[in-house]
Amino acid sequence: MIKPGRLSYIVAAGLLVLLMALRCQAQSLWDLANQNKKLLKIATLFTAQNVRDYLSSDESRPSEGRDESINSAIDWCKKTGVTHVFIETFRN
């Protein structure tokens, strides 16, 4: 059982951790990644299949859909703090 005097310390510590977590979430990952890009580069790979299926300029897809897909990929990178993207291509 927790002693009454210690309970206030536990509650205060919990509130402090909660406030610190909320403060950290206020800054977007994109801003944080760009501020520290000399220290850490967060990268991802878009495979050739991803490019073909979601980002390519295939004439069978309407141009609005292509632009929306590319903007969606850029938005995902910003939300997750990705600052560098490798794009795979098909080769023979």
**Measured distance between first and last alpha carbons:** 69 Å
Question: Major sheet: size, sense and barrel closure?
Answer: 2 strands, parallel
Average pLDDT over all residues: 77
Counted beta strands: 2
Instruction: Give the uncertain stretches in residue-range form.
Output: none
**Proportion of helical residues:** 55-70%
Separate helix tally = 4
Fraction of residues in β-strands: 5-15%
Name the helix and strand elements from N-terminus to C-terminus, one letter apiece.
HHEHHE
Overall, the morphology is: elongated
Category from helices, strands and their pairing: mainly alpha
Q: How is the largest sheet built, in terms of strand order? A: 1-2
Describe the model.
The protein has a domain at 28-87. The protein has four helices and two strands. The model has no long low-confidence stretch (mean pLDDT 77). The chain has a two-stranded parallel ribbon. The protein has helices at 4-26, 29-35, 48-55, 63-80, and strands spanning 43-46, 84-87. Helices cover 61% and strands 9% of the residues.
Keywords:
single chain; 92 residues; two-stranded parallel sheet; 2 strands; elongated; mainly alpha
How would you briefly describe this protein structure?
With about 90 residues, the protein is mainly alpha-helical. The chain has four helices and two strands.
SSE arrangement:
Blueprint: H1 4-26, H2 29-35, E1 43-46, H3 48-55, H4 63-80, E2 84-87
Parallel strand pairs: 1-2
